[in-house]
Amino acid sequence: MIQIRPAGQLNLAVLASGRGSNFDAICQAIERNELDARIKLLLSDKLDAPALEKAKGRGIIAQAIDPYNFTDRNDYENELVRLMKQQQVDMVVLAGYMRLVGTVILENYPNRVLNIHPALLPSFPGLNAHKQALDYGVKFSGCTVHIVDSGMDSGPIICQAVVPVLDNDNEETLSQRILQQEHQIYWQSLQLFAEGRVYLDGRRIVIRADV
Ligand code: GRF
Fold first, then answer.
1. Do 82 and 143 fall into the same domain?
2. In a 10 Å sphere around its CB, with 0-12 CB exposed, 13-18 middle and 19+ buried, how is residue 9 labelled?
3. What CATH number does the domain containing 150 carry?
4. Same domain, yes or no, for 148 and 77?
5. Tens digit of each residue's pLDDT (9 = 90 or more) over 125-146
6. Which of 53, 79, 110 is the last residue of a domain?
7. Domain stop point among 110, 137, 152
């Protein structure tokens, strides 16, 4: 069993493609002193992502890097890694980042890239998770914080929250209720890393009692 990271304040980079509500929730947990972390920078692959303005409004370095300006994914990710290393980033937080993470980031941040997915993995990975859950007819869905590996939403699971699916739910209502849980479990999962309590046993995450 390996400890993923010793205890200590986290230096985070957030990668976001969209509105940035999870980013906001993480910022708020830091402001409340419930999460021992600093967000060193926010990077986006979308030039017009609302998350960029949210970050700037908080005085956080925010930069859009257009993947189409690079020859391939490695080239693009090398630039992201360069910017993150420049800021001494030690963990990478995907918050609505709509791209598969490639080997360059994963090799530079092994077991240190986290994602949140709006379903109970391994059910309903990939796009349109809420629609997948509604179409399937599950009675419970939820959200999952996991470590990112080279697959699609397939890495070791850190934390999940269960949300009932109501008979009259649609994608909008279900996603709103799941989002409320996302805004709790993402920063709580990060705090476990700050406390040095996250261990990996095969593909199983074990959260040790306070060390
Ligand atoms: C969330 O539903 C998250 O689970 C998924 O992308 C969405 C991002 O929302 N990965 P936001 O940009 O954090 O508001």
1. no
2. exposed
3. 3.40.50.170
4. no
5. 999 999 999 999 999 999 999 9
6. 110
7. 110
Ligand 1 touching residue 96 (CB < 6 A): yes
Ligand 1 atom closest to 179 (CA): 2
Write the CB contacts of 143 (distance below 8 Å, at least 6 apart in sequence): 116, 117, 118, 119, 120, 160, 161, 163, 178, 181, 182, 185
Residue whose entry in the numeric block shows the structure tokens 């419970």: 140
What spacing in Å lies between the alpha carbon of 142 and ligand 1's midpoint? 13
Q: Is-contact 147 183, C-beta < 8 A? A: no
Q: Is 185 near ligand 1, meaning CB less than 6 Å away?
A: no
Q: How many domains does the chain contain in total?
A: 2
pTM, 2 dp: 0.97
183 tagged catalytic: no
